[in-house]
Amino acid sequence: MFDLHRERIPTSSEFGNLQISPEEEGSNHSTLFDLMLDIGEREQGLVATFTYSTDLFEPDYIAMLVEGHQQLLHNVVQQLRASLE
User: Fold this and answer.
1) What's this model's pTM, rounded to 2 decimal places?
2) CA distance 68 to 64
3) Fewer C-beta within 10 Å: the chain N or C terminus?
4) What contacts 17, CB < 8 A, 6 or more positions away?
5) Using an 8 Å Cβ cutoff, are 49 and 23 in contact?
6) Cβ–Cβ under 8 Å, residues 77 and 69
7) Mean pLDDT across the chain, nearest whole number?
8) Integer CA distances (angstroms), 63 to 43, 46, 60, in order
9) What is the model's pLDDT at position 45?
């Protein structure tokens, strides 16, 4: 499942310093879905959280998904910058 929370309208400059970091291991969250990506807009920018079933997914696989999403977002920002120039 994918969930996006819009708390405010972003400006294009807010995407310049994209940062994704994992939560501390041992965080005890649960989800109704096998895999959930939650993205929220906060004062500091976008905050992404993966929640997943540890019975189905290994932490290394989730880390690979995080890297893939980070690269995807980076490429989107680069394309937007290129089209503005």
Assistant:
1) 0.60
2) 6
3) C
4) 45
5) yes
6) no
7) 76
8) 25, 18, 5
9) 78
What the block records as the tokens of 4 is: 């996006």
DSSP the chain: -EEEE-SS---GGGGTT----PPPTT-----SSSEEEEEEEETTEEEEEEEE-TTT--HHHHHHHHHHHHHHHHHHHHHHHHHH-
Residue 44: predicted pLDDT: 76
At residue 16, the pLDDT reads: 58
Nearest to 35 by CA among 68, 58, 5, 67: 58
pLDDT, tens digit, for every residue of 6-39?
A: 655 444 444 556 665 555 545 566 667 899 888 8
Q: Say if residues 74 and 46 touch (Cβ distance below 8 Å).
A: no
Could you tell me which of 12, 82, 81, 25 has the C-alpha nearest to residue 54?
25
Token look-up 């019975």 returns: 55
Encoded tokens for 5: 């929370």
